Amino acid sequence: xKTFINYIKLLFIISIIIxxxxxxxxxxxxxxxxxxxxxxxxxxxxxxxxxAKDGKVLFEKSYGYANFEWDIEHSEKSKxxxxxxxxxxxxxxxxxxxQQGKLKLDKPLAxxxxxxxxxxxxxxxxxxILNHTSGLSNYTQLKTFRDEYSxxxxxxxxxxxxxxxxxxxxxxxxxxxxxxxGYFILGAVIEKITGxxxxxVLQKNILDPLGMNxxxxxxxxxxxxxxxxxxxxxxxxxxxxxYLDMSIPYAAGSMYSTARDxxxxxxxxxxxxxxxxEYKKQMYHVSEQRNYALGWEVTNxxxxxxxxxxxxxxxxGGINGFNAFxxxxxxxxxxxxxxxxxGGAPLTPMTNGLLAIYYDKPYExxxxxxxxxxxxxxxxxxxxxxxxTYQQMVSDGNTPRERSLNYFGYELMQxxxxxxxxxxxxxxxxxxPDSANTFDSLGEAYLAAGDKxxxxxxxxxxLKLDPESNSAHDAIEKLQ
Length: 480
Fold this sequence. Notes:
- By secondary structure, this protein is α+β, with helices and mostly antiparallel strands.
- The protein is 48% helix and 14% strand.
- Strand 1 and strand 2 form a beta hairpin.
- The longest helix is centred in the first third of the chain and has 40 residues, at 2-41.
């Protein structure tokens, strides 16, 4: 009888534990849903979110529309462009070739791409390209990239000759500089060694083995079921994003995927299915210059914050109309995936908030963006109201970031609100008087308004603060 009573007590205790665990899980899901809803309500996020532990989904929810014109809502089937998250797949293909003995990471690029300009190819290694310490430039930073190149279709060799063959920015291995050009070149290396197209190697070596049937190399020519449309998120609302030919991001950013497929990818990285332990260790080994490894950013989280040391391995991706984020906490096999199709959603604070909710830590809720707040005031009260609100922000200790104000000013310029744009740039200049960029932007606004004298004065101040500013130097030459 006593044994039976003890058995009943044990069952009762187990039931309490299970009930408590389920209740906590339900509370966590509800809190996560409310947290993300805040960003959606402020029109800062539109897409899918997934949080998983040990491969099991803890939280998954869709927000908003896959296509606004047809009122098609997002679902777990929505396929998003993932931009630079592609880089970790490219890095994996390179590492697989190294594991097979077909290349060595510390050999110079010239060994595998003899047609590339030899003065550079002989100096940089594949590892340096993988961790962005090669000194290669970044073609997406070219001022004429969007207008002159982004809509054209290029062969791999043609694009490398055209936009990936500039002089090195620094001596290889001495600095970190993020380079899409480098990962584009790695795609060419993969094709050269395998004798196959990059997209075919990707399909055969990663996507097919993992059953990632909803992931692939994107192309506007293909009919892709459940492919999401991309939008820009401006002050006046959403608009269709600019066309980008997918031959251009290539091995640096041309993939699409779903949150569920990226969960498969995450789980495979804990196994030896794609890569052995030796090369996985190299994949996560950061350079001396930055906490960037081979296709991944690796960060050791503060023990005092989470109660134990944690390693976060993550990467973001941004491409016309889309941005995406994958974050993995290795010790707890915790995964956060966020996919968005309305431009620059604040995915880092969103990810940090979801992690904080899981670990039961404090977090910051969504707030209205500075540009949105100031623009709404401008619409109601004009420039004087905008100035007054900005000055109140400064007085309250909430001075907007230089970058945010600068972006807001350019948005106003695009809308034809030149007087308001000049006001915003002037306010930014007052708050950040040591920034060459604030003077450069102000000079551009003055010039657009036809005030050449003020434009010249601003550009001269920009050049004084940054003697290497090409934009200021060129503008001064034209104005004098």
